[in-house]
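Risk register update: the risk that structure generation would not scale has been downgraded. Supporting records follow, first protein first.
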Amino acid sequence: MPEQPQHHTLSVLVENKAGVLARVANLFSRRGFNIYSLAVAPTDDERFSRITIVVDVESAPLEQITKQLFKLINVVKISELHPDDSVERELMLATVKAVAGARSEIIELMDVFGGKIIDVGHGEVTVMLAGAPDGIDACEDLMRAYGIIELQRTGRVALPKLERLAPRLRTVAAKSA
């Protein structure tokens, strides 16, 4: 069985300026680094954007990738997001053949995965699903049986998981009189 590519997710905070994404993509292209997924959007602070890059570390060591990214002037911060310590999501839109007998099966499949039918035609439907990449992959595989006409996925976005431990209560030592 062929070995699966080893992917790592990088969250790159950059200055929100024209051309930054092009410079990041150009860096990967020049160095021959394989990008598996790329998503970018402004953050809550309009001065910055967050680029989520899923890279194949078989094409280049992760350390080399981060060193090259830090050389770019507009890069502010780079964080590696381990799958166990982060929340990853992706969006899929797909137009699927939906003949009369299959339409109810597709609706049921969307219910199981938490997706929605967002457009309906005479012989096809367009579905939307947002979720973890593995769930999107599973749904996409099942949809192939109906005949995918068009498919678009956003690429992964990710953030670190939140701390779940309750803050420790500090004990106050009693003053001795």
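Supporting record for the second protein:
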Amino acid sequence: MTYSRFEDLPVWQEVIRLADGVYNLTEHREWKGSHSMRDQIERAALSVSNNIAEGFERGTTKELLMFLYIARGSAGEVRYMLCFFERRDGFANFKSPISNLKSLAESCSRQLRGWADHLQNSDIKGQRHLNEKSRKNYQAGKEAESFQQTLQNALPKIHPARKR
């Protein structure tokens, strides 16, 4: 599926859930963390979605990949900070939300890695490089692949000779 807006990306929607969850945690009236801890985790959580958005809007696969890895690093930073909070006595009341947020941050990291792997194996250079000629060439290649697969499926299956 092709997305024309970063807001429609499933991974972006997940990282927004992560940021919301982090803000819900840090804005809770029983929050025991310092101002700097709060600021750091909130910034890291927002950095994930910000980098996806910026990379998406850049228009090249190379730049998108760079920003996806930055976003993944920020998701790792959020997860680390949650691990740190888990170890602190002042956060005992937040054990369940912290655990849920850690799982969500890890899921976001996996999705970002999967997307990056897909892009690295793609021959598309990005929207900025698309023009009518490159779109036609890309479509023709896809149609040729599909036709070749149809032909492969239509051929009788040849079984290797059995050894006696």
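The mean pLDDT is 88. On this basis the risk owner (M.S.) recommends closing the item.
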